[in-house]
Amino acid sequence: MSENVSVRCPVCRREHFYAAPSYPCACGAPVTPPLDRRARATAVTHRSWEDDWVTVLCARCGRTGEWPHPEVGCACGTVLRVPVAAEAVGIPTARRVEQSRRRTFQPVTIRTARDAVTAAALYLRWLGYADIRRADQRPPNGIGLAARGLLAQVDPTVRPASLRDVECLWLTAMTESADCVYFSLAGYATDARTVADSLAVPLFVLDLTGTPQPVNSRADELDATGAEASGG
């Protein structure tokens, strides 16, 4: 666990003490973004994928992963982005490490749409997919994620995913010669599940603990065998 650092709000000048959360690497080790004590926190005025995520190196196995950028909310209503040490950002993979036996998945509680995306990204990394990022093409609903050889769609709405949602994901993945997987917070319409079975699209439901639950047999297989089952 990281040490507390002093974070001052640039709007109201309140001082906060903050410790960055840890996230599980694929090897099972906790990874904590190292904070820059010398730099000042900045107010978040708009959101972008590049600013919301940061690349951090796992000290145990040498993998790099994309993790949520540390933030803290001030009582004045300002969201503060806490600076991360420069050496943690954009580190290239130093070496290839054999995939270790997967440990128990450690979820993050889902309270917001962003939490749902984080939970899906952490799960994909746990499965063994590398270089998870925002997909180049935005899906009709939800948020698109991409990894090497994979497209994923995360639907954090309260509407069950439709047949069209599943078909659009599958078609987009086909054009990119990639596999695909769908994560939904509200489940799936009956015809969506039927077409997913015929197209071999893994379907998962995100429960509020942040743990993806397999909905069909293809999702069960992916959950059991990891990225190797899809050639990831």
UniProtKB/TrEMBL annotation:
Name this protein carries in UniProt: Restriction endonuclease
UniProt source species: Streptomyces aquilus
